[in-house]
Design brief:
The protein is α+β, with helices and mostly antiparallel strands. The protein has helices at 51-67, 84-88, 97-111, 163-174, 238-241, 246-270, 282-286, 288-292, and strands at 2-4, 17-20, 23-27, 34-40, 43-45, 72-76, 115-127, 130-133, 141-145, 149-153, 158-160, 179-182, 185-189, 192-206, 213-231. The strands form 5 sheets. Strands 6, 7, 8, 11, 14 and 15 form a 6-stranded mixed β-sheet that branches. The longest helix is centred in the last third of the chain and has 25 residues, at 246-270. It starts with a strand and ends with a helix. Belongs to the TRAFAC class myosin-kinesin ATPase superfamily. Kinesin family. This is Kinesin-like protein.
Length: 295
């Protein structure tokens, strides 16, 4: 678990936290000094940290596992206007986790002389507990089978060959996202967005005479993994967001699904025979293979 603090916005006057190594210290509201409230995480990042450094320390290892055939998941969690979308998507000057991980993915697959790779992507939105395909016009729905487990049927999976093609797919999907204004954020994400990269690879076969790699000829050893990158909608309190009507319903759906996500993660951490409530939310049902893993 990594925690990143964003810079103060125009409505904020003083820092409430101090970052020191992998620890967050709550500052006393009256004195500004370090209080007894302390939280420790795997990594903590102050407002001055660039996303590329967050990626190198906290996200790169997930890509390593994905290329080895293991499912990987990265999601940004926090209240609305806390910087989740900035961290995941970023800007041209400060690229987010998604463009950084995509760039390295293709760099490594293109230079790997031992394996042949194929990459597909999908982009899904969960809005008010309804699943929407941000890349296609179909009606995606969740299914479960013995062979594939929990999977999405009816969603477009686009074959991609370069970072440019992935970014173009992301930009196409962003246009269709559900965005709205609240008191806490003039451009608040009103939905969860799940971007998935399906990575398949087979061992490359060398030509016995020339010792050159024979493209398109592979053995039967296949690695299949899914890298799931999630930009969660922001949790919020109605008293602060000023949500009414449609916005209130959106906020209620968001908060319920985030609560279920927390319950699933807690159950997985505790282990044993405890029931994991994947079915209580479309979000956790969709993320079941990502959270539970494939090993």
């Amino acid at each position: 678990v990594a925690v990143r603090l964003r810079p103060l916005n125009r409505n904020e006057q003083e820092d409430a936290w101090k970052v020191q190594e992998n620890t967050l210290f709550l500052l006393d509201e009256m004195t500004g000094k370090v209080s007894d409230t302390v939280f420790q995480y795997d990594n903590t990042y102050g407002p001055e940290t660039l996303t590329k450094d967050v990626y190198a320390q906290s996200a790169k290892a997930v890509l390593d596992s994905t290329l080895m055939g293991l499912h990987g998941t990265i999601f940004a969690y926090g209240q609305t206007s806390s910087g989740k979308t900035h961290t995941m998507t970023g800007t041209d000057a400060d690229p987010g986790i998604i463009p950084l991980i995509v760039s390295e993915l293709f760099e490594r697959t293109e230079t790997d002389k031992d394996r042949d790779y194929s990459v597909r992507c999908s982009y899904l939105e969960i809005y008010n507990e309804e699943l929407k395909d941000l890349l296609g016009d179909g009606s995606p729905h969740l299914r479960q089978s013995l062979d594939e487990g929990v999977h999405v049927a009816g969603a477009l999976e686009l074959e991609v060959h370069s970072p440019k093609e992935v970014i173009e797919a992301l930009q196409r999907g962003e246009v269709k996202r559900a965005i709205g204004a609240t008191n806490m954020n003039v451009r608040s994400s009103r939905s969860h967005c799940v971007f998935r990269l399906f990575v398949s690879s087979t061992k490359a076969v060398q030509d016995g005479k020339t010792n050159r790699r024979r493209r398109g000829v592979s053995d039967v050893t296949v690695r299949r993994s899914v890298l799931t990158l999630v930009d969660l909608a922001g949790s919020e309190r109605q008293s602060k967001s000023g949500a009414m009507g449609k916005r209130l319903r959106e906020g209620s759906c968001i908060n319920r699904s985030l609560l279920t996500l927390g319950q699933c993660i807690k159950a997985l951490v505790e282990g044993g025979k405890r029931h994991v409530p994947y079915r209580d939310s479309k979000l956790t049902r969709l993320l079941q293979p990502a959270l539970g893993g494939n090993r």
